[in-house]
Design a protein that fits this description.
This protein is an all-alpha fold and about 120 residues long. It has helices at about 20-35, 45-60, 70-75. It starts with 20 loop residues before the first helix and ends in a 40-residue tail after the last helix.
């Protein structure tokens, strides 16, 4: 069904070790910098904690691979979202930043096979 819809199952092809390296590194950071440090009691607590972490990850945490700049600086993300009166983060971009600078072509995106 996926093939019929034109969906590729792997970025690099069978037997390539680099398919998941970037997302695995992200989740390692999430686990060691957030999840393992907190004892979430409910899914709602986990969503809130992870939402705060990804805001921190994108807007405040410097990244070695980005020359110690934040993803927000590199990719031109909007400023850190504000908290609503209810304490829930509004319009939160919890997904990791785009994986290539706005000026990069598709072949330059992270995970693409080298030319």
């Amino acid at each position: 069904m996926l093939h019929e819809a034109g969906i590729a199952l792997s970025m690099d092809g069978r037997g390539r070790a680099f398919d998941n390296i970037f997302i695995e590194r992200l989740w390692r950071s999430v686990k060691y910098e957030e999840v393992y440090l907190h004892d979430y009691q409910t899914p709602a607590e986990a969503r809130l904690g992870l939402g705060r972490y990804f805001t921190f990850y994108n807007h405040q945490r410097p990244h070695q691979a980005l020359d110690y700049r934040t993803p927000a600086e590199v990719y031109g993300l909007p400023p850190t979202p504000r908290r609503s009166q209810a304490g829930i983060i509004g319009s939160l971009a919890v997904a990791p930043v785009g994986l290539r600078p706005p000026s990069a072509t598709a072949s330059e995106s992270v995970g693409a096979s080298p030319p």
